[in-house]
Every structure is written in structure tokens, then in C-alpha cells.
Design a protein that fits this description.
It is a single chain. With 223 residues, the chain is of the alpha/beta class. The protein has one domain: Rossmann fold (3-Layer(aba) Sandwich). The chain is 28% helix and 27% strand. The structure holds cytidine-5'-triphosphate (CTP) and calcium ion. The site of cytidine-5'-triphosphate has 17 residues, from helix 4, strand 9 and helix 5.
Length: 223
């Protein structure tokens, strides 16, 4: 028995996983968020850990607790997540499963916003958040495998293929998150894995099983 079998196929590898939503403040008591539960990212971090990887898990405020045995970095905003990701490199693999908010409120208030009695609603202004996946893909110390996600509601393959090119990542894990699929917030997932070789439709599986298969695929790619 050699070290490979004792430690698992990802022994000695550092894997960065992002997961969950981000929260973008409006004022100290209010924020903008999205419906990501963090379930798929959390399952992936656990599956990568189980294959022997050292996992840095950068997570927004998710519904599910982070897995045991990984290095957890909790963040709130997309801008915080970028900083935590930058601090976590170098890594052999980056798996960017977080549902990063696309915009933050650029005129967020430092104190609680109050109704002024006139019936007027506040005008929120938005600014685009940094693209963390694109940043990792272009980093000087780029991980040798960068995996992005694409949760879409229509034209899944076309949007996800374009995203892979635009963000210069190696793989995109695409899925259809239309409400009828029950995937967002549910326990199952049905992904299409897009690589340089093309697109593979995976069967509908639990998020845990999807994670185990993806982790094995990552180990194969690194071998
Ligand atoms: N992502 C990121 N930083 C952002 C936005 C997205 O790192 N500011 C990552 C996500 O973690 C995911 C991938 O990019 O791995 C695709 O996210 P998605 O929201 O589908 O892509 P966007 O470029 O934001 O496109 P869209 O307008 O469709 O939301
Ligand atoms: Ca987005």
C-alpha cells in the first residue's frame, strides 16, 4: 500500500471551494441576497476532503453548515469573498460554486434607513461586483484546474458554454434552475459538465452523489 491509497487520490492537493450566496448590505439591518442554499458547494467540499484534499472553504451565509475537516472562511459580500479567495491561493484546484451577487448597493447607508413620512421610497444605486471566477482564471498563480458553475433558467448549454469562454475557466458545471426542476433549494441536481472536449449530460442524482462524481472526476483530471 503506498501513500496514494493511504491518503486518497487528492492527498497533498490544496482545493479552494467557494459556496453559498453572498449578502450585499442596503443598511446595517437589510441586505440583498439570492436563493442559494450552499448545499452543492458544501457537498463538493466534503467529497473533495474525503478524497484526501486539503480544502479551503470560502462560504457566504449558507443555509447548511460547513462540512467538518475543512478550513472555513466565512464572508458576507462578494467583495469580501474575492479577498478571501485571493488570500487562499495558491491552490491546485478552484471550485467556484458560490452564487455571487452580481451587484452591490453602491449607496448603502451606514445607519438604518427610515421612512420619512412622505410615502417616497429610497432609490438604491447598484454597482457591479468583481467577477471572482474570472479573476482566479487569470491569476498569475492560477490553479491548474478552475471549475465554474452556471445556474441558468433557459438556453442552459449556450449560456454555459459562453460563460466558460468568457471566464476562461477549464470546466463549467451547468444546471437548469427553473423553479419546475426543484434543484435550487432541493436535494437533487442534474448537471451538464462542459469541458474543452464538449458537454456531458449527467443523470439526475442527489447533490451528494453529484459531488462525489465531480470530486472523482477532478482527481482523475489531476492524475
Ligand atoms: N461568479 C463569480 N463572481 C461573480 C459572479 C459569478 O465568481 N461576480 C462565478 C460563480 O461562482 C460561478 C460562475 O461565475 O462559478 C457563473 O456565475 P453566473 O452568475 O452564472 O455568471 P455571471 O457571469 O454572473 O452571469 P449572469 O449574468 O448569467 O448571472
Ligand atoms: Ca450572476
Amino acid at each position: 500500500i503506498d501513500a496514494f491509497f493511504l491518503g486518497g487520490p487528492l492527498a497533498g492537493k490544496h482545493v479552494l471551494v467557494t459556496s453559498g450566496p453572498t449578502h450585499e448590505p442596503i443598511d446595517p439591518v437589510r441586505y440583498i441576497a439570492n436563493r442559494s442554499s450552499g448545499a452543492q458547494g458544501t457537498a463538493l467540499a466534503a467529497a473533495l476532503r474525503d478524497l484526501g484534499a486539503r480544502v479551503t472553504f470560502v462560504t457566504g451565509p449558507a443555509d447548511v453548515p460547513p462540512p467538518a475537516g475543512v478550513d472555513v472562511r466565512r464572508v458576507q459580500t462578494a467583495r469580501d469573498m474575492l479577498q478571501a479567495v485571493q488570500a487562499a491561493l495558491p491552490a491546485d484546484v478552484a471550485v467556484m460554486a458560490a452564487a455571487v451577487a452580481d451587484w452591490h448597493v453602491s449607496n448603502a447607508s451606514g445607519s438604518k434607513m427610515k421612512k420619512d413620512g412622505s410615502g417616497a421610497a429610497p432609490a438604491l444605486a447598484f454597482a457591479e461586483n468583481p467577477d471572482i471566477l474570472a479573476w482566479v482564471s487569470r491569476a498569475a498563480n492560477r490553479p491548474s484546474l478552475v471549475v465554474g458553475f452556471a445556474a441558468e433558467t433557459d438556453n442552459v448549454l449556450a449560456h454555459a458554454t459562453a460563460k466558460r469562454a468568457r471566464k476562461e475557466c477549464d470546466w463549467i458545471v451547468a444546471n437548469d434552475v427553473s423553479p419546475a426542476t426543484g434543484i435550487m433549494g432541493g436535494t437533487e441536481n442534474a448537471i451538464t459538465l462542459i469541458t474543452a472536449e464538449g458537454a456531458e449530460d449527467w443523470p439526475r442524482l442527489t447533490k451528494d452523489e453529484t459531488a462525489r462524481r465531480l470530486a472523482l472526476r477532478i482527481a482523475e483530471a489531476l492524475a
